[in-house]
Amino acid sequence: MLDDDMTLRMAEHRYGPFGRATVKPFSRAQRAVDGGALLKTYVGVDPERRRRREVESVRHAVHWGLSVPEVLATGRCNADSWSVFRVLPGRPCGVRTDRAIEEYIGHVLGLSQRLHRSAPGLAPGPGWSDEGGCPEPRHSFLLNQLSSRCRLRPWWAALAEPLQPLESHPVVYLHGDLKPEHLLVGDHQLSVVDWEASARGPAVVDHTDVAFHLIRDLLYAGVEPRRIPVGLMTRLPFSGPVLAWRLLLWLDRRRPRDIDLIAALDIHRLAAEDHAPAAYASLARAVAALRAAGVPR
Ligand SMILES: Nc1ncnc2c1ncn2[C@@H]1O[C@H](COP(=O)(O)OP(=O)(O)O)[C@@H](O)[C@H]1O
Ligand SMILES: [Mg+2]
Fold first, then answer.
1. Worst-scoring range by mean pLDDT, 106-115, 126-135, 280-289?
2. How far apart are CA 72 and CA 218, in angstroms?
3. Quick one: which ligand is closest to 29's CA?
4. What residues does the ion ligand 2 have nearby, CB within 5 Å?
């Protein structure tokens, strides 16, 4: 059941009142003034599908003993899709010091052991259940997330071919958006929030997201490329082609012409690099150059 009988008004009455909204391009989040609940409204791209994915995944993940936010109420009201979650204890992971980064990566690896499970017949795709549509090969599941214009870009072949070996990776349940603010560290447990990008695919996709977010966010916080602690990230399983794909996915979702700011040679080199620290260092240089060219975070 992905819809409760409760209307948004009833949920506000029971779990609110809710305070000021934190507004992002694709969501609004409001905490209850008593601190017990969080109202999330999905806006922009595919709100209803994102709501369903998130609610379904947290309801599933709880059976694996993961600490995830309980869905107190969820539904759709006129144009708005919304969910009310119970607020979990803990503070988002930090990345301000090497020690904090090491701890964060340790939490990711611990989570990975419990989350990245396979199941018979599990096929790659968005969400945790088959949302219809044909099963995709693992590498086309990644390529299909890029907009169709990318097929005409000079780097397409340099990306598509090295992604082929992913076919031998098991398909597992993915969080889809692992980053420090989604891992809440409490006194006794680690909680994981924001499951709306959950998917099925090779585990290295989640690991690559962690590395990519870390590098990009440190650079956009003003850290110099040569100071990015790439050595700390070597505990994460690594794939050069997936890292190159992740960089392109980011650019594809920025301003319309940003995707053309990256050279085919850079993508080719990144995808061919099998030494993780060298690949992370070269990603850092590329992202720093893109930032200098005005690409928004
Ligand atoms: N159940 C929760 N308990 C405590 N904090 C939460 C909870 N859900 C979200 N948060 C905090 O609020 C932030 C925004 O929520 P999130 O689900 O990530 O929405 P968005 O889609 O806007 O990123 C999260 O990064 C996290 O720090
Ligand atoms: Mg979030």
1. 126-135
2. 35
3. 1
4. 194
Q: Ligand 1: which atom is nearest the Cα of residue 86? A: 1
Q: What is the pTM of this model?
A: 0.95
- Start-end of H helices in the chain: 8-15, 47-61, 98-115, 138-143, 156-160, 204-220, 240-252, 264-272, 276-292
Domains contained in the chain, CATH given = 8-86 (3.30.200.20), 91-292 (3.90.1200)
Distance CA 244, CA 212 (A): 10
Q: CA–CA separation, 125 vs 140, rounded Å?
A: 10
Q: For ligand 1, is residue 43 a contact (CB within 6 Å)?
A: no
Which SS3 state, helix, strand or coil, does residue 224 take?
A: coil
Determine if ligand 1 sits within 6 Å of the CB of residue 92: yes
Q: How far apart are CA 49 and CA 196, in angstroms?
A: 9
Q: Are 101 and 156 in contact (CB under 8 A)?
A: no
138, pLDDT greater than 90: no
Please give the DSSP secondary-structure letter assigned to residue 183: E
Q: Whose CA is nearest to atom 9 of ligand 1?
A: 193
